[in-house]
Automatic annotation (TrEMBL), chain B:
Belongs to the ABC transporter superfamily. This is ABC transporter ATP-binding protein. InterPro entries: AAA+_ATPase (IPR003593), ABC_transporter-like_ATP-bd (IPR003439), ABC_transporter-like_CS (IPR017871), BCAA_Transport_ATP-bd_LivF (IPR052156), P-loop_NTPase (IPR027417). Residues 8-240 form the ABC transporter domain. It comes from Candidatus Segetimicrobium genomatis. The keyword Cytoplasm does not apply. The lineage of its organism: Bacteria, Bacillati, Candidatus Sysuimicrobiota, Candidatus Sysuimicrobiia, Candidatus Sysuimicrobiales. One of its GO terms (biological process) is L-amino acid transport. PROSITE patterns: ABC_TRANSPORTER_1, ABC_TRANSPORTER_2. It comes from the Bacteria. Keywords: Amino-acid transport, ATP-binding, Nucleotide-binding, Transport. The keyword Transport applies. GO terms for molecular function: ATP binding; ATP hydrolysis activity; branched-chain amino acid transmembrane transporter activity. Pfam families: ABC_tran.
UniProtKB/TrEMBL annotation, chain D:
The chain crosses the membrane at residues 12-30, 37-57, 63-84, 96-115, 135-159, 191-213, 225-249, 261-280. One of its GO terms (molecular function) is transmembrane transporter activity. Coiled coil: none annotated. This is Branched-chain amino acid ABC transporter permease. GO terms for biological process: amino acid transport. PANTHER family: AMINO ACID ABC TRANSPORTER PERMEASE PROTEIN, BRANCHED-CHAIN AMINO ACID TRANSPORT SYSTEM PERMEASE PROTEIN LIVH. It comes from Candidatus Segetimicrobium genomatis.
UniProtKB/TrEMBL annotation, chain E:
InterPro entries: ABC_transp_permease (IPR001851), LivM-like (IPR043428). Its main location: membrane. It holds the Pfam family BPD_transp_2. It is found in: Cell membrane. It is a multi-pass membrane protein. This is Branched-chain amino acid ABC transporter permease. One of its GO terms (cellular component) is plasma membrane. Keywords: Cell membrane, Membrane, Transmembrane, Transmembrane helix. CDD domains: TM_PBP1_LivM_like (cd06581). The chain crosses the membrane at residues 21-39, 45-64, 71-91, 97-118, 173-192, 223-247, 259-279, 299-321. It comes from the Bacteria.
Amino acid sequence: MPEVLRTERLTRVFGGLVAVNEVEFAAEEGEIVGLIGPNGAGKTTFFNLVSGALRVSGGRIFFQGREITHAPAYRRAELGIGRTFQVMKPFPRLTVMENVLVGAFLRHPSRLAAERWAAEILKMMGLSEFAAASARSLTTAGRKRLEIARALALNPTLLLLDEVVAGLNPVEAEGTVELIRRIRDRGTTIIMVEHIMRVIMGLSDRIVVLTHGRKIAEGTPPQVASNPDVINAYLGTH
Amino acid sequence: MRDPGFTLTLRHLQAGYGDVQVLWDVSLEVRPGELVALIGANGAGKTTTLRAVASLLRARDGEVQFGTNRLDRMSAHDIVNLGVAMVPEGRQLFNQMTVEENLLTGSSLSRTRPLRRSNLDRVYALFPLLRERRLQEASTLSGGEQQMLAIGRGLMSAPRLLMLDEPSLGLAPTIVEEVFGVVQDIRREGITVLLVEQNVQQALRIADRAYVLESGRIVLAGPGLELLQSAEVRRAYLGI
Amino acid sequence: AAPASGEPIRLGAISSLTGSFATFGSMERAGYALAVDDINTAGGINGRPLLIDLQDDTSNANTALTVAEQFIRSGVPLVLGAYSSSITKPLAVYMARQRVPLLNSNSADDSITKPGSDYVFRVGQNTDAYVKPLFGLFKQLGGIKTIAILVSNNALGHSVENSLVTQAKDGDYQVVFDQAYDEGLTDFRPVLNRIKDIGADVLAMSSYEADAVALMRQIKEVNLNAKVFAGAGATGFAIPSFLKGGGEAVEYVITSAAWSPDVHYPRAHELFARLKAFMGGVEPSYHAIRSYAGATVAADALRRATTLTPEGIRETLLATRLTTPFGTVEFKDFNGFHNQNPLPSILMQVQRNKYITVWPPDVAVGKVIYPTPVWTARK
Amino acid sequence: MVQFVQIVVNGVFTGGVYAIIGIGLSLIFGVMRIVNFAHGVFLVVGMFTTLFFFERLHVDPFLVIPLVVLVGGLLGIVLERFLLEPIVRAPEHASILMTVGIGLVLSNLLLFAFGDAPQIINTRYSTSTWHLGPITFSTALTIAFVLTVVVIGGLALILERTDLGRSIRAAAQNADAAELQGINTRRVRSLVFGIGFALAALAGALLLPQLFAHPSIGPTYTLKAFVVTVLGGMGNVAGAIGGGLLLGVTESLGAAYVSSSYRDAFGLAAFLLVLLLRPAGLFGRSRT
Amino acid sequence: MRRTPPSGSHPATRPRIGAGTSSLTGALVLLALLTFYPAAFPSFITLGVTIVLFAAMASAWDVLGGWTGQLSLGHAVFVGIGAYTMALLVLRNGVAPWWGAMVGMGASVVVAAMWGGVTFRLRGPYFALASIAVAEMTRIVANNWARLTGGAEGISLPTLPLFLGLDLFSRRVEFYMALILLGLALAVAWWLQRSRFGYHLQAIREDEDAAMALGINPTREKVWAFLASAALTSLGGSLYGIFLGFFEPRGMFSLDLSVQLALMAYIGGAGTLFGPLIGAGLLVGGSEVLRIYFPGKSLFVYGVLIILVVLFAPDGLSTAVRRARRA
Ligand SMILES: Nc1ncnc2c1ncn2[C@@H]1O[C@H](COP(=O)(O)OP(=O)(O)OP(=O)(O)O)[C@@H](O)[C@H]1O
Ligand SMILES: Nc1ncnc2c1ncn2[C@@H]1O[C@H](COP(=O)(O)OP(=O)(O)OP(=O)(O)O)[C@@H](O)[C@H]1O
Ligand SMILES: [Mg+2]
Ligand SMILES: [Mg+2]
């Protein structure tokens, strides 16, 4: 399987705090990689580094073999890295349709084609009926779906999902899990951060565990779940 | 020490945003010392209910009563003075203030100021991470750290009734356990709790009673464990 | 003559009644109003009453142009105005193009009549005229060699600056310092310290109203001495509030002025008193008198005109020679000026917190105190 | 050398005045996120209020300061209640437009009330000085400077250290959450706007003995206030002193040694540089 | 128990897609009606020129201020550059004013590119404040650099060559030139309403980080918006220069003028097709009416008017009207 993303000794420092500490990470095409770890472990920061929202303090990032360590965020989006924001960022004064359209324009410069593509994605995300509503009026679940929809509109090779299931009740969560599988089946590589074990264990092909910015474990869900370090630092004995 | 006599009662509450009505008819009751859970799908109106109680949103019709006080006729800050605190959904921190300043703001009323030191110690004991981040600006905390801070701030006001809106959201499993532990501790101290949670199973397990909200109406009510066994709840909210 | 009656003859007038130039607008209004009164009680325009339709330009050039268009479309043969050069200039350009005469009383910028146009006439003095008597005085006093120039950074200031520099060169004076300052929040101390360092016999200044007082106060504060402190552009140095606000700091300042109640023109004193009464006790500045003169000149032209068309009036204006309480008004071409009243200005010196006319000798009522005592020697 | 020191000293003292001009603007922006275009007009209101009391009561303008501050505070509270509170949830620019409108209305009211002649008062210390060796100090500027430092220091202390200060900042950052902590955010906003207006009025009172009052001079002060607060950090109350001093000294040196016709440009250039290099202000915590 | 849909929401609050054609018709009808203005109000052509010209410049401002959300309070710089470049080329080099206007446009674009490149990393009010600083500095330089600009005394335009046989100083001709410019500005706004570029700008306005994550280069798009806005404003400035016939730096580069353009767009409704036009009509036309009916009090009433609009239509009049019509 070709490698989609690789980081070498990726590091980010905030003042005295090393939020991401020499992390070596790789994801292959079509994989779903779960990224877990205690609060403040550096997961979102890792996403921010990979997507270009934050500048690295050290280390390198490769996307499809190409170094992107210093590429600006929009360039990475063009290359095929889509992301959602943990703190959601809809364009509040645009409609749901327009929110997605903005992303769709990247691959479909013509408006007609972009609209068609956006409509398709809305349908897939179950948002069609809200197409004309303003993004402001969506509920939490709706906004989370919109976050995914917008990222999907880029037709990304790699999708970074930051807690898109959190805040959904189990039934809704199941729906989103189903969606994520479908996205993967279309060939998109996914890295997801989530604290809900049922979801992450069920979905991930492989799991990487961060604490205090360091990678402490990596492996299949069962391997990670039984790793004493992980249990100690994150899962708890419960 | 149990607080006598302050029951929260909602009668036929209606509320909404702009020309959108969200709550159609919500009646519920939280008695002193109780832990009551409010569950429901996304968009059912749980947050809206809490906001209406806290007077962040004007009720269109119906009543909200706490003891003998009509909350729906009071402004939000006065309600806090009565001892009703809320940990809002989405954290709502004071972003450009430090962690400690956020906590101190939670106890700036004359009623709570004397308890400030001990409350602060209690919150730090509960969330040691927050002590480490004392002087960090709230906006730079991780998602989970922000959630802890929001809960901590709510506790700083030594409330009679604490309303929690999805406190476990975005927390690591161990912390989730802790938070549910804290909620039970709070209740044990005699503080009344109204809990909104998507972690339905856990919530129902610790709740004395629970209400199920659907499209702005209460559709089910009963003791927590009983609802947990209910086939409807299991199918609709637990996916079992 | 019997008071005027019948169908009035209407003229347009544009002034700044609101906005940043409103101070002067109220002066102009008073001048126009009294003039119309006087003209109409004295029989008007050949028996018909005169009506001056005064419109507010809100201190804004666009508005002045809008008003001018309406005047012209409604058949007004002559327009009076405006106050600020920044409004008068676009107005003059427009009026010339529409071939309707503009009679200006109070804008001081040289460029309004230099090169000027056939349709623009100015009653008031230009800055060359403000500066000229100063050099006459210097020559008489003797002992003056060096001049420092400090003017406000606007059209009037630069116009005064140019006049000063040219006339200094003609008279073989040396300009040792020459700068403009930005108006507004005025801390002059740094510049004044520089000038103090350089040293000059004369400090010649041009400022609007309020800066003038601040300037003199700070001159005192930094202990800057000169033989003559001169308000070369009139304006701020030659208005009543300069005395009131400046107190002892403005003593001995010599300023050019367009007019003073001392001058020996007919009815000058009386008019001053009436204007003051009209304005509810506020001392009128020379702007009010010049507007009065402007309206008088306009009425005179209307009386003499054979046809009441713009062209007819323009031609009569050319032949104006009229003595008003402000002085003699005629429109001449000289030194590159066109249709400019060649009236000289006078010099006044502040003595015991009053303006005393000291130049030219034929109108002077007091003697110049010279050189200006140094600050430390004053009490 | 003496001259250089003199020029720097002048700059410093003028800077003190600049600081007090900017401080209210900074506070209102920091707490309410309102870019107050009426600030200069508030200052002019302070000048005319001082003038009014000065002429009615025949007392020293520095003695009527408490009265002027009180009047300013009340006006600020009233304006906030009736004009700014209703648009608290409207987009950011609405408050800018509102303050533009308020400025126009206030300056025209001043015009109706006091006429359009510039008002200058002449007091003992308008031109009096004291000396330290060869260096001269303006008495009026010195009094203003001392008052400025005291007021700004006190205000900064209140904001940083007290519950009231924290409540003010909390209300600024998240009104709903502040309400949930029992803070009466409406009252806080009124209070802050009142304080902001009072500070502007105070600046007016301090300036009147030296400069003049005119109903339409407000925008000049507004612009100065912008420069000062950006240099010191918008919303950073203590920073305003640094911003004021920096501006004062820059302008003084520039006007003396380069050219007085570019005096304002030196301040603006410093302003732009600081904006670009340290957006949080020279004296603020940088957020980048 | 029923399974509730995963997300609930409410029908269209802003049905914008497909609204483009009707507003296009509206714009065309409006422009057509305006062509009759000079014939209908021959005594008020000057007023008409002012309104239409300011509407065009406010629309130009809106490309950056409304659509991109970058509040500029320094647009007078482009008005000044347009007017001065045109006039100086006429006076010094005998270049025809229309070519001068083109050169001015080029100069404005260059200035905008540098200005934007340097200050676009500032967000929110900081960008606005920086724009004030840039404009004020430009004014000071123009005021003092007499050799280039003629300095504080200003410059006046003598006779101009005929443009396609038309006298450029005729108010009538000026009116139609302004109208063409307005048409151009409206066309740009209409295109922004539905084009990819327009959506990029709006996305940047709403959330720059999110926009970046969608492959939008905010700096580049903002600079393009700034260039377009500057170019149109500059053309307006050239025309304004001809209209005035005389001008000086303190007027042409004034903060007041910049604030007015912003005010017009906001009062009418920023980021909408007709907003700036409505705003210009209200503020320019309105103040003329006020001047006539409230002599001496017009600025006061003007201030009151602004306050009332902000109180009752904080999103601008056109948005308020649309909302009222829907209700
Ligand atoms: N801009 C910043 N300045 C200072 N510290 C920061 C900044 N951003 C993040 N941090 C710190 O870096 C650490 C990692 O944060 P990050 O958001 O990556 O955590 P996370 O793993 O996503 O946690 P969570 O699961 O709670 O979302 C946290 O301790 C946080 O406080
Ligand atoms: N500010 C708002 N403006 C308009 N509609 C809103 C607003 N906030 C919420 N709504 C709508 O009100 C309804 C109820 O929202 P509410 O937040 O109360 O739901 P909830 O039960 O808390 O859901 P969640 O589990 O997603 O938090 C939703 O349909 C939502 O779209
Ligand atoms: Mg995170
Ligand atoms: Mg909710």
